[in-house]
Amino acid sequence: MTVDALTDVTGVRVGHATRTGGGWLTGTTVVLAPEGGAVAAVDVRGGGPGTKETDALDPRNLVQKVEAIVLTGGSAYGLDAASGVMAWLEEKGRGVRVGVDPAHVVPVVPAACVFDLGRGGDFRARPDAATGRAAVEAAAASEAGAPVQEGCVGAGTGAAVGPMKGGVGTASTVLGSGITVAALVVANAAGSATDPETGVLYGELFQGRVNHPEPHVHEAARGRLAESAAKNALPPLNTTLAVVATDADLSKAQAQKLAGTAHDGIARAVRPVHLLNDGDTVFALATGARPLDAGHPLALNEILAAGADLVTRAIVRAVRAAEPVEGPGGVWPSYEELYGGR
Questions:
Q1: CB burial string 39-73: b at 16+ within 10 A, e below
Q2: Cα distance between residue 160 and residue 190, in whole Å
Q3: Burial, 245: exposed, middle or buried (Cβ in 10 Å; 0-12, 13-18, 19+)?
Q4: Predicted TM-score (pTM) of this structure
Q5: What is the pLDDT of residues 34-84, one digit of tens each?
Q6: Distance CA 192, CA 162 (A)
Q7: HSE-CB of 164 using CA atoms within 13 angstroms
Q8: N or C: which end of the chain has fewer CB within 10 A?
Q9: How do beta strands 65-66 and 38-44 pair?
Q10: pLDDT digit string (tens) for 237-265?
Q11: 246: DSSP letter
């Protein structure tokens, strides 16, 4: 049975650590690979990325597999969350072996951050190593194939998409070949997820699921968004993050291609995208449980297409699952609050 989430890729687990109240509106999300790691790659398209250990994922470099990927709030400060994940992995003996002693490992933990500083009211309230540890422990404690909580949790706690609240979303599919592909996103974009003329989510236009709001509902929503944006003095420094995972047996180069084409999924759901004040970053994970058809040189294509489609669908789910926030750090209505379930 599938749960339409990243965890439908066997062995992949997701954990969130969420901090709210008292000036906090942030958190960390950890994607934990099966023990022994997964082939990983990354593609960065935004002009203002905040990342850690992404050079290790270059196909030309030594590291072949990673045990975890960290998505975190807190901008560059929040990358400290990866230290907590690294410490936990070391305790478990999980990482790159660097000596005869099995305990001598160096966990390579790629990480990327979103900008949410001050959105809870306190600029200094941001994830740290303890937050990262809490998220990886939550991932490890989860059941195999467990549903993934969406909306304002983990790295999506303080997320915003334009003037609206953003968050975490996830989706999956099983291809005709039996290969599973899935995506998890943190939707936190400087651009908008909605068509300004109709209020329809761009991602739903792409999916062909068009149900236009009544004109008076859209006009009221536009007015509310304009009022909210005027109250938010913080700069539109954002970033959309994604992890696309598959159980296919991919090389690092193939995984990098998957990460790159998955960015198309962001471009379908958010406009404009990949701006200088975005840090849009997509990771790819391949567990290797299912071989590609070696006799078919284009067998990767269906995985590439699915990855982009799932990122689009995950962004739609993130925006729809988000809850409104009004506090000392700003005001962000949610899509559901403005337009209803439709």
A1: bbbbbbbbebbbbbbbebbeeeeebbbbbbbbbbb
A2: 8
A3: buried
A4: 0.96
A5: 999 999 999 999 999 999 999 999 999 999 999 999 999 999 999 999 999
A6: 5
A7: 31
A8: N
A9: antiparallel
A10: 789 999 999 999 999 999 999 999 999 99
A11: E
